[in-house]
Design goal:
Layout (H helix, E strand, L loop, with lengths): L2 E4 L3 H12 L6 E4 L16 E4 L5 H8 L8 E4 L22 H11 L3 E7 L1 H17 L2 E8 L12 E8 H12 L6 H22 L15 H9 L5 H17 L2
Parallel strand pairs: 1-2, 1-3, 3-4, 4-5
Antiparallel strand pairs: 5-7, 6-7
């Protein structure tokens, strides 16, 4: 298995390199070009493709949720600034509205399953209407859930719209693969996820302290600035993991 990370921010890319060294995210290639310059052929051969990768939150979440290592998946949290108050709500008129750039890559490469995230509220819903229509037009099934970080006992709201899309053919292939393997019971799966979450939450707290070999997990960046630019622009991987786990429960255990 190999992963592709597309992240234009040099600070976030530095985090990704250190997180790989620490074994916390999947080894792979970090592409610091703008997504505008990425072509479908650049993505051939990767099991996981993470766009707008940040500090690797989606890959971390896939591990938390126990996503099968041999199941191809794409993830991406398109820039939220065009649809947030901080970004002046310019919407489709904002140059950072990059769904129209990401979508052609999806249409050409047809990843089996995709996970994404966007701001909540009316601007985010409007954005997701566009995303849903585009994906359904090329025969993907699409669904979303509006979840806060507080749902996993975080001390802040951080309300976000989490979404998933599945190509029907690729989903059937994964389902056949799963049926050939022995599966743990739902209770065993839930207990495994819970213990893994507890361990990785502990790891996350430890890594949040800018001390030791990795510091803020990026050489040359001050601890405070690294945390602000890294954590402040990242998804909450524990909420993402719960969303992915719920998706797996629905798609793997339904009759």
């Amino acid at each position: 298995m190999s992963a592709y990370y597309n992240e234009i921010d040099v600070y976030a890319a530095a985090w990704l390199r250190e997180l790989m060294k620490a074994g916390l995210i999947t080894d792979g290639e970090i592409d610091t070009r703008s997504i505008v310059d990425v072509r479908p052929d650049d993505l051939r051969g990767f099991t996981r493709c993470h766009f707008f990768a940040g500090i690797g939150g989606w890959d971390y979440a896939l591990q938390l949720a126990g996503w099968p290592v041999d199941c191809p998946v794409w993830t991406g949290s398109c820039p939220c600034q065009p649809f947030s108050q901080g970004g002046l709500n310019r919407g489709a008129d904002d140059a950072r509205h990059l769904w129209p750039v990401w979508f052609p890559l999806i249409r050409e490469c047809r990843p089996g399953e995709i996970f994404g995230e966007q701001v909540s509220g009316a601007p985010g819903y409007s954005w997701f209407d566009l995303v849903g229509c585009d994906l359904e037009d090329i025969d993907y099934a699409v669904a979303a859930a509006d979840l806060p970080s507080a749902c996993i006992d975080s001390f802040h709201v951080r309300q976000r719209l989490w979404w998933a899309a599945a190509d029907s053919h690729a989903y059937c292939v994964r389902r056949q693969r799963l049926e050939q393997k022995s599966q743990p019971t739902k209770r065993e799966s839930a207990e495994l996820r819970r213990s893994e979450l507890e361990r990785l939450v502990s790891d996350a707290r430890r890594l949040a302290i800018p001390a030791g070999k990795y510091g803020a997990l990026a050489d040359g960046i001050s601890g405070r600035m690294g945390r602000l630019r890294g954590y402040g622009n990242a998804i909450n991987p524990h909420v993402a993991a719960e969303f992915i786990a719920a998706y797996r429960d629905v798609t793997e255990h339904v009759a």
